């Protein structure tokens, strides 16, 4: 497991980060590969902060101080150099962020409504919805992938499963609102504590952070596919 890089990207700390600490964290993330060869004095100068602030930021990342931080980052960099190790560690991280126990109620509900299911997702999550529909069909469970809210009017006895990695997509939220207006139960596979989770009767949830590349959010679907597979595998056992 990576010791620093994921915490640095997510920044889900147990207290609010100060402005100066944020400057240090931003510098560490931007110059991650160079940190093992830099001094605390240089980082303090470059981030316009103090050595004390750097040590506080280091503790936020789960180490005792800057010396330990340099060592932990060096370990992360070594692991990132190996392609196979990189993918293994990334998959382990993603698995640790999925609450597999939260799938139980969703599986039971889907099984009870197995002939009256609608699926909806956008972008990459639309592909996950199509994949889920195909896997359900292999089990003899027909599921209809819808593309717009108007289709809901024709399926009043159905339940809707929303797939959304972020849980904040506005169009998905609108579909959830429209479904509830027509008394269609809303279920979801989505991010923990997201807006879509709050709109859902039952949710199988994860806590994977949004992947950012050069300021652009890149929607990963590895965790969504793993979650769909978990639902399918549990349904296989029931059936």
Features:
239 residues, alpha/beta, Arc Repressor Mutant, subunit A, Rossmann fold, five-stranded parallel β-sheet, elongated
Strand content: 5-15%
CATH superfamily of the largest domain: Glucose-6-phosphate isomerase like protein, domain 1
Calculate the terminal CA-CA distance, rounded to whole Å: 36 Å
Classification by helices and strands: alpha/beta
Percent range for helical residues? 40-55%
Counted by DSSP, the helix tally is 11
Spatial order of the strands forming the largest sheet: 2-1-3-4-5
CATH topology of the largest domain: Rossmann fold
What's the shape?
A: elongated
Number of domains: 2
Average per-residue pLDDT, rounded, comes to 89
Largest sheet: 5 strands, parallel
Q: C-alpha Rg, in Å?
A: 21 Å
Instruction: Give the low-pLDDT segments.
Output: 212-218
Organism: Alkalibacterium gilvum
Protein name: Transcriptional regulator, RpiR family
GO molecular function: carbohydrate derivative binding; DNA binding; DNA-binding transcription factor activity
Keywords: DNA-binding, Transcription, Transcription regulation
